[in-house]
Write a structure and sequence with these properties.
Bound molecules: zinc ion
Strand order of the largest sheet: 2-1-3
Distance between the termini: 26 Å
Radius of gyration: 13 Å
Number of strands: 6
Oligomer: single chain
C-alpha cells in the first residue's frame, strides 16, 4: 500500500507527490492513484494518465499510475484507452477537473 497527502491542503495527492502516508489503507492508495492533482492544485504529478473514450471526446478518468489507468480502461470497455499525459497536459486538465 502507498498513499500521499498534499503538503499544502493536506488532502489526497497523486502517487509520489507530497507526504507519504504512514500505514496507508487501500482507500488511501486508491485516493492517490485516482487523481493527477490534489484538490487545491498544489500537488500535481508529472506522470499523469488519462483514460479517454475511443473518439477522444471525453475523459473517463484521471490516474497517477499506469497500472491503475490501464486497469480502469479495461473496466470502461474496449472502446477506451489509457494515455500518458505530458506535464503541460496534466496541468491544463487538472485546472478544468
Ligand atoms: Zn493540495
Amino acid at each position: 500500500m502507498t498513499g500521499y497527502t498534499c503538503k499544502s491542503c493536506g488532502g489526497p495527492s497523486p502517487i509520489g507527490v507530497g507526504y507519504a502516508i504512514t500505514n496507508p489503507t487501500q482507500e488511501d492508495q486508491h485516493a492517490s492513484e485516482d487523481r493527477i492533482a490534489c484538490d487545491c492544485g498544489h500537488s500535481i504529478t508529472a506522470a499523469g494518465w488519462a483514460v479517454f473514450n475511443v473518439a477522444v471526446t471525453q475523459i473517463l478518468g484521471l490516474y497517477s499510475t499506469e497500472d491503475r489507468a490501464t486497469e480502469a480502461a479495461r473496466e470502461f470497455g474496449s472502446c477506451s484507452f489509457a494515455y500518458r499525459l505530458s506535464a503541460d497536459e496534466a496541468a491544463r486538465i487538472s485546472q478544468t477537473h
